[in-house]
Amino acid sequence: MLKKYLTVRGYSESEITIQKSRFITYLERTETEEDAQAFIQKIKKLHPTANHNCSAYMIGEHDQIQKANDDGEPSGTAGVPMLEVLKKRELKDTTVVVTRYFGGIKLGGGGLIRAYGKAVTEGLSAAGVVERSLNRVVTTNIDYTWLGKVENEVRSSKYPLKEIRYLDAVAVDTYVEEDDLEKFVEWMTEMTNGQSEIQIGEQEYLEKQVE
């Protein structure tokens, strides 16, 4: 599993008009090629009368699946420039479909490349990009007398607080990146004078919007 990577926040749609042609951009996070293809087909069903439903996607930790489809536009003028935007932005597990309704003015090869690239760029601004970082959920079990200090320190630290569970003792769940585990345990142990029980839990991705 990757420690960090960028992807889109989720489903979005946006639209621009270039030389009277409508370019409607749809973006979705897709973790498998099957998900990507299903999303593309979904958009095509939304626009059965569109002139083109061009698509591109990047799937996998190492971008091992990369596909682009011009859907009737001149070869290399739609899907490839769309894919290039995803690659340039280093987005993983992302699928984009640009639906075009022809407005009567031909754009030429260069114009199409610029138009489809711009449609995806504008679409990403609407969708938002997030950084997913791999964290451990670390549970710190403490006596209630330590709660005020520990909660205040955690909330003012770089470690995101997941939740506080009020049991026989207090369980404070915190997100900690893998590289910071040892440092976190030392910090928490020192803060509580060794009067805490710390459990390293499951791995989870934590998302932070970056664009």
Describe the structure.
This protein has 211 residues and is of the alpha+beta class. The longest helix is centred in the middle third of the chain and has 20 residues, at 108-127. Strands 1, 7, 8, 9 and 10 form a 5-stranded antiparallel sheet that branches. It contains 5 helices and 10 strands.
Can I get a quick summary?
By secondary structure, this protein is an alpha+beta fold.
Strand content: 35-45%
What would you report as the Rg, rounded to the nearest angstrom?
A: 23 Å
The dominant shape is: elongated
N- and C-termini, Cα separation: 23 Å
Order of helices and strands: EEEHEEHEHEHEEHE
Summarize the main sheet.
5 strands, antiparallel
Number of strands: 10
- Uncertain stretches of 5 or more adjacent residues: none
Number of helices: 5
Helix share, percent? 25-40%
Whole-number mean pLDDT? 96
- Helix-and-strand structural type: alpha+beta
Helix/strand layout:
Elements (H helix, E strand, L loop, with lengths): L3 E5 L3 E7 L2 E9 L3 H14 L5 E8 L5 E5 L9 H10 L5 E8 L6 H20 L1 E14 L4 H9 L5 E6 L3 E8 L3 H11 L4 E14 L2
Antiparallel strand pairs: 1-7, 2-3, 3-6, 4-5, 4-6, 7-9, 7-10, 8-9
